[in-house]
């Protein structure tokens, strides 16, 4: 069983809603271990709600930027590998 979270994007600008829906359509096509899983999205007149998997621990930057966190070289290598692996996957998906 996976735990989900929702992200709500509210705007009155049609261009912003169109951009969000384009991102949603891209997320639907992705399947990679280092990329967030999107379960679905719902759109109303001025809001898009995106349902994704829940990732505990918060944002990577917030984690490593705290004074009490010591980022080791091995952790840095692992994080960079995961990021580069995901970006490489995304580049291969581009038509």
Q: Which stretches are poorly predicted, pLDDT < 50 over at least 5 residues?
A: none
As laid out across the biggest beta sheet, the strand order is 1-3-2
- End-to-end separation in angstroms reads 33 Å
Radius of gyration: 16 Å
Largest sheet: 3 strands, antiparallel
Order of helices and strands: EHEEHH
Q: How many strand segments?
A: 3
Structural class comes to: alpha+beta
DSSP helical segment count: 3
- The oligomerization state is single chain
Percent in helix: 40-55%
Residue-averaged pLDDT, rounded?
85
Shape verdict? globular
| Fraction in beta strands | 15-25%
Structural write-up:
This protein is α+β, with helices and mostly antiparallel strands and 95 residues long. Helices cover 44% and strands 21% of the residues. The protein is built from three helices and three strands. A three-stranded antiparallel beta sheet has the order 1-3-2, with helices on one face. The longest helix has 21 residues, at 73-93. The radius of gyration is 16 Å and the shape is globular. The relative contact order is 0.18.
Briefly characterize the structure.
This protein has three helices and three strands.
Topology:
Blueprint: E1 4-10, H1 14-28, E2 38-43, E3 47-53, H2 60-65, H3 73-93
Key traits:
single chain, 95 residues, alpha+beta, three-stranded antiparallel beta sheet, 3 helices, 3 strands, 21% strand, globular
